[in-house]
Amino acid sequence: MVRDRDLRASLERIGQLQPAYEHASELIDGRRRREICADLGVELRIVRLETLREACSVLWTLHPARALELAGKRPLLELAELCSASTTAIASQLQAMRPRKSHKATVRILPDQPYRELKATPRMIRRLITLEPELYAYGREAAAQKGHKNFNRLVRDALWKEIALTVPNAPQYQPRRVQPANGARRKVG
After folding, report:
1. Which end of the chain has the least Cβ crowding within 10 Å, N or C?
2. CA proximity to 93, closest of 144, 59, 42
3. What is the band of 172 on the pLDDT scale with cuts at 50, 70, 90?
4. Does the pTM of the predicted model rise above 0.90?
């Protein structure tokens, strides 16, 4: 997409190369060109498209997602016919337009019910933290002297202590048993 200042410079130097398109008394392409041409005092060339098929097929070549929005909810074959495109092209554009779902669970804290969602979440959440190299080296040494098997546990314990001191109504730290990712349990004994 061309920025407004680049579009303005192009319209000043060269003039309008591509017309704006209108369907059903509504501008379907060229909204920014219309505003910039009005500022510059240049007349905007507008092509009026009579049928929905004309509008969708012209818009498909410029902005496929906008063409599908204009066509509305229709069966795949009808969309392909309206946009003058193959069903494969329509399907791939629909797939690209579909909202993505995050694979990560969201944890929300409600003000009236503190930490209810956190207590109900049995999984550990991984977060990347950045430390200075010296702090990391001292932290590893402190973990070894305290008897911790790894640095992450030392950081987690220190964070829980800080939370207990500063956050009201925070639960007391209790190490919980986390089930392995594949669901298998270790045999004891």
Report:
1. C
2. 59
3. low
4. no
